[in-house]
Amino acid sequence: MPAASQPLPGAASTDARRPVGVPSESAAEKAAAKAWTVELRELGRRAGSMREWEKTLPALPGWGVEMIGVPEGAPVELHLRLESVMEGVLVSGTVDVPVTGQCARCLDPVEDTYTLDVQELYAYEGSTTEATSGEDEVRRIEGERLDLAPLVRDTVVLTLPLSPTCTPDCAGLCVDCGERLDDLPADHSHEVIDPRFAGLAARFADLNDDADGAQPGPGSTDTEEN
Q: β-strands 50-58, 139-140: how paired?
């Protein structure tokens, strides 16, 4: 049997090169997603049991539309009440989410904070609601925990405007120079020349420049000879 190969002197092992204590990206994502799950053991299944849930959690990726959304990792404040009912757990309350994006008219940055109302029933596995509802019609409790991230994500995405604006009456950009119209004087305008005469206008401009730059020749006089 051939002898096992030995590492070269001075060569670092694979374990030595691996950073210590730095979780992989997938592990970090799993940890962030797990923070959005609620353990229901303390709530119990007795109808009427209630629990307040106040937390600040980092936003997960993908919470937005094309021009505006919640930055990944941004702090999301949850002020929720979890109430046990016959068919599951009723989640209600408000969520404060910071959003950033770009004005659809002038392309300036847009920043805001939304306070959104949420109310959703999470159905127990095997309940009548779970059995009689389609896959996308009701949220389900998995085991003894429920996941709040999809609820908040859907609420945010459905609230975000497809064409956000920096101000409600933003005038946008000048189509000729590209400057913000709100930053320009009220009489701002550009001379419009018919493209059919553009060449002729340029020729006249050159002739005027030549005439303005012409100097009197040597010995010329303004007095008329008799």
A: unpaired
Is the separation of the CB atoms in 78 and 120 below 8 Å?
no
Q: For residues 105 and 97, is the Cβ–Cβ distance under 8 A? A: no
The tokens of 209 are what? 């420049």
- CA-CA distance, 206 to 200, in Å (whole number)? 10
Give the pair of three-digit tokens for residue 67: 């021009």
31 HSE (CA, 13 A, CB side): 8
pTM: 0.68
CA separation for the pair 31, 27 (Å, rounded): 6
4-40 per-position pLDDT tens digit: 445 444 444 444 444 444 445 578 777 888 899 998 8
Q: Which two tokens stand for residue 197?
A: 């005469």
* 89 CB burial (10 A radius; 0-12, 13-18, 19+): buried
∠ CA 108-111-113, rounded to 5°: 160
